From TrEMBL:
It is found in: Membrane. This is LHPL6 protein. InterPro entries: LHFPL. It is a multi-pass membrane protein. It comes from the Eukaryota. It comes from Vidua chalybeata. Residues 1-21 form the signal peptide. Keywords: Membrane, Signal, Transmembrane, Transmembrane helix. The chain crosses the membrane at residues 87-109. One of its GO terms (cellular component) is membrane. Pfam families: L_HMGIC_fpl (PF10242).
């Protein structure tokens, strides 16, 4: 297999892939915030939640649904900030994964990644990282 990457480029490609995979897994898991409500453990992320309260009209009380699930629609996400976070984090993860997979292909195909393409990919990766990390850091 011919490669268009240097040793540093190969290390960058594999680290990029690992970071992109970790970001995507973190995006899809509902464990961003953990706490308790009605004496039950609850957790939720940008578009998934576990153990959430619902109003039981037949018994006229609030009960906890002890299962994980996603919101029924984009508008069902509790606030505009969480909807923005979902979109921005999803775009960031997509950019990171695109660059990481391109870099991994560069390990196998010669002349796929030039110095200029590597710099542009690094810039896109930086932008994707800022997008997926900006909400978690309070920016």
């Amino acid at each position: 297999m011919a490669s268009s990457l240097t040793c540093a480029g190969v290390v960058w490609a594999f680290l990029s892939f690992l970071c992109a995979a970790a970001s995507c897994v973190g995006f899809f898991m509902p464990y961003w915030l953990l706490g308790s409500q009605l004496e039950k453990s609850v957790s939720f992320g940008t578009f998934r939640r576990c153990s959430y309260p619902v109003r039981d009209e037949s018994r006229q009380m609030t009960v906890m649904v002890e299962q994980c699930g996603r919101y029924a629609s984009f508008q069902a996400i509790p606030s505009a900030e969480w909807r923005i976070c979902t979109v921005v984090t999803g775009l960031g993860c997509g950019l990171l994964l695109l660059v990481a997979l391109t870099a991994l292909m560069g390990c196998c195909v010669s002349e796929l990644i030039s110095r200029t393409v590597g710099r542009v990919a690094g810039g896109i990766q930086f932008l994707g990282g800022k997008c997926s990390c900006s909400e978690g850091m309070g920016m």
